[in-house]
């Protein structure tokens, strides 16, 4: 693995949260399509889009990916290896109940936020629910959505990665996180996919198989 791509232990994370806006749908689609079927943790996505477009994107991603991809619904349980796309004009959060089961919460509150679904709302809830075990990824988009939530993830001990400036349609959201010193690495979409892929058992197995044998 190239030195500029962070390497993590396979059990480092319990969830991946992705925030994306302008220029993001195609890239997010490509990232999810390239992941293996044995991803052991959930992937949660806040993509700035109107409701019809988030529904269509979820259907397209589900068709192209070996993973199950759905537009998230309120009260839906969060399962390992599933991808949850927040519905347009609503916020998506994750919560842990008294039974320690994690579920989706969909709400139009708070209404004063500029973007719905809000990356900040998703990231904040992931930090609260998964503590240090969340990988947050901030991708192309206008503005600063995601910076407050990324701060919460880092404060909880989690990791934030950002999309690299040359590969962004709009270097706004990643730039805000980069300038705040929140990002552990600024990577192109292929490298971001590679980092997520590391979490899968199949990647770990292949990595072990590629290691040179010790000479006698």
Short summary:
This protein is α/β, with parallel strands linked by helices and 216 residues long. The protein is built from 7 helices and 9 strands. The strands form 2 sheets. A 7-stranded parallel sheet has the order 3-4-2-1-7-8-9, sandwiched between helices. It has a two-stranded antiparallel sheet with strand order 5-6.
Give a quick set of tags describing it.
7 helices, alpha/beta, Rossmann fold, seven-stranded parallel beta sheet, globular, 9 strands, 216 residues
Describe this structure as you would to a colleague.
By secondary structure, the chain is α/β, with parallel strands linked by helices. It has one domain (15-201): Methylesterase CheB, C-terminal domain (Rossmann fold, 3-Layer(aba) Sandwich), CATH 3.40.50. The protein is 33% helix and 20% strand. The protein contains seven helices and nine strands; from the N terminus they run βαβαββββαβαβαβαα. It has a seven-stranded parallel beta sheet with strand order 3-4-2-1-7-8-9, with helices on both faces. The protein has a two-stranded antiparallel sheet with strand order 5-6. The longest helix is centred in the first third of the chain and has 14 residues, at 51-64. The protein is globular and about 50 Å long. The two termini are 26 Å apart. 45% of the residues are buried.
Question: Topology, pairings included?
Answer:
Layout: E1 15-20, H1 24-33, E2 43-47, H2 51-64, E3 68-71, E4 82-85, E5 91-96, E6 102-107, H3 119-130, E7 134-138, H4 147-155, E8 159-163, H5 173-179, E9 185-187, H6 189-197, H7 201-210
Parallel strand pairs: 1-2, 1-7, 2-4, 3-4, 7-8, 8-9
Antiparallel strand pairs: 5-6
Helix pairs in contact: 1-2, 1-6, 3-4
